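Worked problem 6 (solution included).
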Amino acid sequence: MADSPTQTEAHTLRGATDRPALLTIRDVVEEMEPLATPELDDYLHPSVLEVVLDDGLCAADDARIDIEWTTRGEYKFHYTDTDGVNLRWGKHPHAGDYIHVPGLAHYHPPPNASSESDEVEPSCISQSPEALVTRAVLKLWRVAYHTDSYDPLNTGSNPP
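Solution. The predicted structure is:
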């Protein structure tokens, strides 16, 4: 597979699912977040780690974060809840379509995780190892949870 940003897969993760990374992420979630229950969709050949949350942000009763991670270190952390709110942190090619995002790491804000070119923002997460990215996402989620606001979700200063 070529790395050209002109290919049709410009907005997708490249590379195979990284099972060891998903297992590391699962362990970090289990260690850090008491409201979360992480589970691989398939233990031997996973494609996603689903993190069920016993409570959601703001007025949402429940939520989940679906996590994908590839052997190329590209990822998506997609939050969705019972109020229909969606947001995503990602690091993968976007063919320069996100005009405010100079690199690969980006954030799709709530309420609908928009992919409109002028709405996607650079991610405040600049770390790359899966454990640090996971800690950052959980920390940002927890701050938003305690403040009962979506505003802190992409305002960390190089979390965790």
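Discussion: The two ends are 33 Å apart (CA to CA).
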